[in-house]
Fold each of these.
Amino acid sequence: MQNSLYYKRDNFDSTGVIVEPKLISTTDVDAVIKDLDRFLKENKDNLEEGKEINYANSEKTVANSFHRLENYQGYFFNELSKRSKIVDLAEELLKDKAELISIQAFVKPGNMGLAAPYHQDNAYWCIEPDNGLTIWIALDKCDKSNGMIKYVTGSHKIGVVEHTPSLAPGSSQIIEEKNLPDGEVFNPSLNPGDAAIHHTMNIHGSNPNNSGKQRRGILFCYKGKKTQRNMELFDRYQKNLDKVMELRNA
C-alpha cells in the first residue's frame, strides 16, 4: 500500500494530475446526488448568483454549478469531505496536513452545460506556497463526450499564467489561448465514484456539455496546513469579482 501511495505522489508531482478509481462507492454517489437536489430545493431562493450558484440557461431555471457549499451544514457532502480515505489521500499528495478550502459541485446538465475556460485554481485561492489540490469526484460517467475536464500536464510547474477577467458565468478569470503553454492535454474518462485530482497550479478547463447526458461532479478543495492565503491578492481578486458581477448583471 505504501509503495502505491509513493507511486501516486510521484505521478502527481510530475504531471499535476492523477486519477483515483473508485474513491467513493455507488451508494455514496447516490447520497451526494440526493443531497445536492435537497440543497437546491432548500436554498435556491437565497443563493447568490455568481458566487454560490451559476445557471446553465438565461432563464436561470437550470443550475450549472454550486459554490461555497462548505458554508451549508447538514448535508452528506460535508461529511464526505472529512472522510479519512479522502483526507489521507490529500495529505499524501500535499505532504502536509490537509485543510478544506471549499466544496463545489459542477452539475453541467445535458445539452446546455457550460464550458469552463482554461484557468489555474490558485488565481482564485491565492495561497502561498501554492500547495493545494482539488479532488474532483464523478457522479456520472464523465468523458470527452459530455465535457469532462481537460488538464495540461506539467503546467503546475510553470508558475502563475496571466489571467483575464471574464464575463462568462462561472468563469471570473480565464487564460486566453495566446497565453496557454505547450503541453500534453489529458482528458480522462471517469466512472461514477472515480476521482481526478489536480494541483492548484494545473491549467485545466472543459468544453460545454452538448450531449444528452448529465455530467455531475462534487469537488473537495484542500490546501496544506503550512500554506497561508495572501490576503492582498485575495482581496484584489474579490474586488475584481464584484466588478465582474456588476458588469455581468448590467
Amino acid sequence: MAVGGWQRWRSHRQALRARSLRARGTDRFEDFVAWVLTTCAAGVVLLALAVGQLGAEHTSDRARAEAAARTAARAELLEGADGTRTRTALARWTGPDGRLTQGRVIITSQHSVGDTISIWVDRTGRLVPAPTKPSAATAVGWTWGVAVTLGGWAVLGLLWSAVRAATSRRNAAAWAREWAVVEPDWSGRVP
C-alpha cells in the first residue's frame, strides 16, 4: 500500500472513530433498547402463535367432549310463551335413558302449549347448553393470539416510551449544561 493510501485509510479510520465517540451514551443506549425490544416484538408474535394454537386445541377438545356427552332432544311445552322477551317455560322431554323428565327451558320466540322445541340434555336427561361448535376453536385461537400480540406490543411500546422519556430528560439536562458554557461566547456577552 502506498504511503498516501495508508494515510487516507488511517484518517478515514480516525474519522469513523471520532464520529462514534461523539455519539451520546443515551443514543447508544436507545439503539440497544430498540434492538432488544424489536427482538422481543418478534418473540411476542411467536408466543401469540403458540398461545393461539393451544387455545384452538383446548376449545376443539372441549367441543368434542361436549358433543360426546350431550344429546339433542325434543321438548313439549306445558306453558305458552308470548315471544316478546326471552323467558323460561315449563316443558317435558324424554331423556337418553328413556325416562320422562320435566323442567324449565329457555324460550326466545312465541310458542303455544304443546309445541315442541329443540333442547340439549346430558346422559342423565338433565337440561344442558348446546355443545360448543367446532368452528369456535378457530375463533378462540385467533382471539387469544391477537390478544397476546396486542398486549405484548402494548407493554413493549410502554417500555420504549419510558426509555425515550428518560433519555430525553437526560439529553435536555446535558444540553442545558453545554448551553450554559457556550451561550455567553455565542451571544457576545463574554467580558
